[in-house]
Amino acid sequence: MGTHVLSMRIDGELLDRLRHHAAKRGMSVQDYVVRTLIRDDFDERFSAAVDETDRFYGLT
Question: How would residue 60 be classed by pLDDT, with cut points 50, 70 and 90?
């Protein structure tokens, strides 16, 4: 298993929120994001967020 790089472009407000959440846990933003992505319930929460966004924009 090799390593890969993931690059994201996010707005300043979201980055500030991520920094705040990470700092509360004594983590870097990168570590916080990775730990969030590997949580057991991430797939379910992500799917629910996508569904909610689709409903908001009338796509479903």
Answer: low
What's the number of CA atoms in the CB half-sphere (13 Å) around residue 54?
Answer: 8
What's the whole-model pTM score? 0.60
Query: What distance in Å separates the CA atoms of residue 49 and residue 44, rounded to the nearest whole number?
Result: 9
Q: What angle do CA 50, 42, 30 make, to 5 degrees?
A: 105
Measured CA to CA, the distance from residue 33 to residue 42 in angstroms comes to 11
The C-alpha atoms of residue 11 and residue 29 are separated, in whole angstroms, by: 14
Predicted confidence at residue 26, as pLDDT, reads 97
